[in-house]
Each structure stands twice: as C-alpha cells, then as structure tokens.
Design goal:
By secondary structure, this protein is an alpha/beta fold. About 25% of the residues lie in helices and about 20% in strands. Helix 4 links the parallel strand 5 and strand 6.
Length: about 260
Amino acid sequence: MCVDDDSFPPIRPIAGGSAGARDLHLVSSDGTRFMAHAARATKPTGAGMVVIPDVRGLHPYYKELADRFAEIGVDAVAIDFFARTAPSEDRSEAFDFMAQVPLTKPETLQADIAAGAAYLRTADGGQVKSLYSVGFCFGGALSYLQAASGLGYAGVIGFYGWPSGLKRWPDRPKPIDAVPRYTCAVQSIFGGADEGIPQADVDAFDGACRKANVRHDLKVYPGAPHSFFDRKYTEFAEASADAWKRVQAFVNGKPGEAAR
C-alpha cells in the first residue's frame, strides 16, 4: 500500500492557481462508468496530467494531487479503476482494496486510463496539447506502460513504480519489457531504501531505456522509503520538494533541472 487515510501530497497549495475542481464520472470504452476528479488551471500551460493512483484507487491523496497540478498550470484528472467489481464508491480505510486489485485486468485498466486521457483533450478537460501521466506504485507501473500505449503522451512519470513488474501479480505486463516500444520521455522517482524495488531493477530499467534511446530522467533519493512523497513524512520533506521540482521541470520540457 502506498497511502494511508491521513496521507496527502507534500505540496503547498497556491491560492488562486486553480480554476476549480470537481468529482465526476467518466465512461470507459466498454461502457463502464467510473469515478474521477478533475481540476482546471487558471492559467493553463497546455499540458495535461492523468493521475493514476496506487492500489487504494481514487483516494483523497490523488484528488489533492490533481488540484496541485492545476495550480501550476497543468489541467489534471485523477481516475479510479475499481468500478467493475467494487461494491461501492467508498475508498476510505474500510475499502478492501487488496481484494479488488487482483480482479482488475490490464485491458480494462488501460481503457479507464484512456478515458481520462480523452477527457483532458475535450473542452471540459482543458483541450490539452501535451499529455502526461503520473502514477504511484501499482499506478507507477501503469504510468510507465503509457509510453507504449499509442495515446500520444509527451511524457510519463512513475513514483516508485515497479519497472520489472508487480511482485504480487507476476502475470501483469512488465514496464521494462515494453521499453523498446516507448514513444516518449520517461521520468522515474525512487526511494533508495525501498525494499520492494532493488537498485538492480532500477539499473536494469535505466539500461533498457538507454539501449532503446528513450530519454529517461531518473532520480533515486538515498534513505527514502517507498511512499516517501507524503506530507506526514517530514524527515523526507527535502526529497519530496526536490521530486516535485523535477516533475515540474519534466513537464516543462527541462528534465533534471529545478523548476523556476
């Protein structure tokens, strides 16, 4: 699990930066109606972000993250992916997410992500010109796979995504296997003390991107654990602040540089 009920993005809100946010439902290509949260920028840059959650689904953490993107000029939509099997739309601590994750399927996960991407390209979503995705853990692996999805992304971002596949679900697509088909830049953010993602996996993913001539902005924060990008982890506030700057620079087309 990546986030707890008291988890929030470690990003200070910008007053007046967002033109408004709302909960809504999107419709996938198979007709499934699923939860989403969209946020519009007051001063849009033309960039749009699909926020792909971890195993908790559309937790408040990811709604707030979409809001923070809007405040920096990036129209955003965060999605849920449990509509086909979950008994309700409750994503609180009472939600048995670990019973739901194995019920998801790669093709329906992708269909829901595609619906989010399509929404950002509508007038309601901001008619974005440059599409990005960001995902965390389970969603990080899904975000990496967007680079080979054919949806026309300008870049994809993974926070502690599993480059060599999801250990609990080895039958799922592995991001590293899809690298030769990547068509956009990739940004990877890892914690150096993440026991679930060894440095060997990080190095292998970086090597695969280099071999395929995929631009890969990689950062490992020494001592930081899985899920360090969280307001409550004050001991990793500096790492979180740097990660957020790197994300902004990546979306601005300046990977590896601090946002200004």
